[in-house]
Structures
1.
Amino acid sequence: QVQLQESGPGLVKPSETLSLTCTVSGVSITAFYWTWFRQAAEKGPEWIGLIYSSGSTNYNPSLTSRVAMSLDTSKNQISLRLTSVTAADTAVYYCARKDGDYWGQGTLVTVSS
Amino acid sequence: EVVLTQSPDTLSLSPGERAILSCRASQSVSISHLAWHQQKPGQAPRLLIYGTSNRFTGIPDRFSGSGSGTDFTLTISRLEPEDFAVYFCHQYGNLPFTFGPGTKVDIK
């Protein structure tokens, strides 16, 4: 079955870059598009953006100047980079297939010095 | 951006009762692009309904969705103990895709 697992540092300093990886098993990442979401405490999820198997992307306008997504087909992984982070970027980050039919378990990223 | 508003904020019900959750959009959403997700504490959201009324794989038939335009509804016909959770509506037809703030269904 489809499984997704996020990984990366749980603590990032303000102004630095957040980098996360989503490892997918059970399906090739070239067969679908993939989405990153995040969820701050006690809030609804926020759509960060998506990446197609071609590598083309759509990002949330509120984040587009700071975000980048990429694929590593050899490792079946999707990556997320978010630059110049602030405390407002503290959240649980999730990767998901398509528009959210399968989600990873999420990883908490805290932005703090 | 399409803003989704959910009501009520909290629904206090007993097992066996019917739950009706509402999601209202600030502009029309295609019925093909409205979903409902369930989230329990410490867990990722789980897709229940996509395309307004289609149950995802493995979702029991006590969950049903309906609506069109700007008004959508999730109905849980008879609450089971495992259904007490937070429910989010989600539109994925207009960029940027957005979620509602959630309705918490808790035990009365």
2.
Amino acid sequence: NAGVTQTPKFQVLKTGQSMTLQCAQDMNHEYMSWYRQDPGMGLRLIHYSVGAGITDQGEVPNGYNVSRSTTEDFPLRLLSAAPSQTSVYFCASSSQGHTNVLTFGAGSRLTVL
Amino acid sequence: GNSVTQMEGPVTLSEEAFLTINCTYTATGYPSLFWYVQYPGEGLQLLLKATKADDKGSNKGFEATYRKETTSFHLEKGSVQVSDSAVYFCALSNGGAGNTGKLIFGQGTTLQVKP
């Protein structure tokens, strides 16, 4: 049982490049979310989804897109990377019965030069 | 708006010392409160939770009591071990359909335990 799997673990981009952070869960969880972690600021919610085909914005959605075509996958797209998007990104999921008990992936560290 | 404030870190303790990490919150209604822990190189994992006032969450020797009168959820452990070295996050969720699965996190407190 892999839980929540994120790829890649590390990525370096140049300003203006685009990329997708992948997230997959094998627990049949309905809810999935993306957070970014920055020093001194804790985790901030970027986007989240309550089920396939349904997404919504979190606290810091600008510069990011998401889609949820299947229950298992929730990719995060950076359309035109900026240095302010240098961060550690975490994907998380939770089940309908325990909506606020999040299972996190191991994180993806992104550096934008 | 809703927010969570944690004590500044890092906190450095010797093994077997008593630990307190302070957490206070601002929220409307009756939030659920959580402590998550992040070990080096890993994602966060739930440590304990409390869903209503005066509830005490506990796990692995850690405890926290939901104090509505002081809007606090301080984390305590009587005797820390080197293996407890990690970053600890206090978080809240306001519940309701619109907040399902969405947590508000504090800034995190780094704990380092020395042998």
